[in-house]
Every structure is written in structure tokens, then in C-alpha cells.
Amino acid sequence: MKTQRYTLHGYWLQTSTAIGRLSMEDPNLQWVKHMVEFKIDSNEKEGDDSNMELYKVYSRDFFIPTQIELRLMAHFSKDQSLIDLLLTPLGDVFNMITAKWSGKEESLVGPKERDQTKRLIYGILYGIGANSLVEQLEWSSDDARDKIQSFKRSFPRVASWLKEFVAD
């Protein structure tokens, strides 16, 4: 049996975005789908698919950090509740977070709420205040403040870590 191993190496860009997020290029492995299928013709015969071999590449074959900033926030804050959510093998972490701090069942969290939670979390992490969230998410000032406080109550170690290490 013949096997070949191919490895893709991208370049991490640590200082290329205005808000400090990590990005990648050449190739951008952050955008690789979960599974890529491709066929290689071993005999190179025109029009004959019988000799094609199917290969599958899974995202676990790459180091593709998802929610890297959220994972770093969980690590540095040592918020066990957030760490436990990130270690859950199935499910969407932003749906789980939304369910936790809003008191809803995870199955009842809609795409809009998920997106708002994601933007709220990254906004909090990057120091976006309630006024900016009001503009970006079209919330009232009271809603924005309430949701920020609700998130911080649900993840108290994150709140104290932010207070100690992230400038207002």
C-alpha cells in the first residue's frame, strides 16, 4: 500500500488586523471547511473515473484554532464554567453560552441571538462599551448594559479577569 502525506503550512499574521485578531495567509487555514474531498486519477486516463481514488481531509488534520480569543479568555481567566462549555465535544459554543446566560434551552437559541452573543463576547473582550454595542446590535442602552452584566454574572472569573487585566 502506497501512502503519501501532505502538510499545509500557513503563515500566522499576529499584527495585521486593527483589533488585534489573529489572521492567516498562504493558505488561510482558518477558512478550511470541516471536510474536503478530492479525487486523484492514478492512471491519468481521460473520461474514466474507475481509477480515481477518493481522499478525505478532515479539519482535525490541521491545527485550526476556532474561537481562539474566547479560548484564551477562558484559559487566562480560569473560568471553569466557560472552560467546560469549550470542552463540550458537540454543540455550538455560542449557542451554549447564550443558553447559559439567558436562561434559555439551547435548542431555543436562534441564529440572531447566537450572532449577538458572539459579537457581545468579542466586544467585551476587545473593550467595546455599551454605547458601541447599542449601535452595532441595535439594542437599547439598558439592554446592552443588562446583557453585559448578565454575561459577567454567568462567567464571574471572566469578569474579574477583565477588570484586572483589560483596560477600560
- Total count of domains: 2
What integer value in Å does the Rg equal?
21 Å
Alpha-carbon distance between the termini?
A: 60 Å
- Class inferred from helices and paired strands: alpha+beta
Tally of DSSP β-strands:
4
Oligomer: single chain
Taking pLDDT < 50 over at least 5 consecutive residues as the criterion, the unreliable ranges are: 59-64
Number of helices: 7
Beta-strand level of the residues, as a percent range? Answer: 5-15%
| Mean pLDDT over the full residue set | 76
State the share of residues found in helices, binned by percent. Answer: 40-55%
Describe the biggest sheet?
2 strands, antiparallel
What spatial form do the alpha-carbon principal axes imply?
A: globular
For the largest sheet, list the strands in their spatial order: 1-2
State the order of secondary-structure elements, H for helix, E for strand.
EEEEHHHHHHH
